Amino acid sequence: MVILKLLLYLFVLVLVVFLAYYTTKLVGKSAGGKQLGKSIHVLERTGIGRDSWLMIVEVQGKVMLLGLSPAGIQQISELEDYVRPKEDGEGDKSFLAMLTKQMEEGQAAFHRQKNDRDK
Which of 50, 103, 54 is nearest to 79 (CA)? Predict the structure, then answer.
């Protein structure tokens, strides 16, 4: 009898964890995880205060700087000469190259300190 109760509690626990996982996935998808608009794209967004944001958006080929606040949305300017930033990994150096360089510099500094202590 005790084993049946234990199995029932275990089943209920697994069910609750599964439902919590499924619910968070469902809510995450409906919270705007994907951009479905074909002519409106948010290029960049940054917070400038507790409830204020600056956004660079592209609407039908025009790039605009927008200000968002609890008072509403305002177009600040149209950016005619906007250059899109490079995507991750398109920079001049890869992460691996930068990490290797930093590790080599760190090892060289460590060996210099060790040699200075040994003298």
Answer: 54
Which helix (H) or strand (E) segment is 79 a member of? none
Name the DSSP letter for residue 84. P
SS3 61: coil
Answer for the pair 12, 18: CB distance below 8 angstroms, yes or no: no
Rounded to 5 degrees, φ, ψ at 50 are -60, -45
| Cβ neighbours of 78 (radius 10 Å) | 11
Q: Which two tokens mark 108?
A: 């060289």
Q: Indicate the domain borders of the chain.
A: 1-34, 35-81
Render pLDDT for 81-95 as a digit per residue (tens, 0 to 9). 888 777 655 555 677
Question: Is the pTM value of this prediction over 0.70?
Answer: no
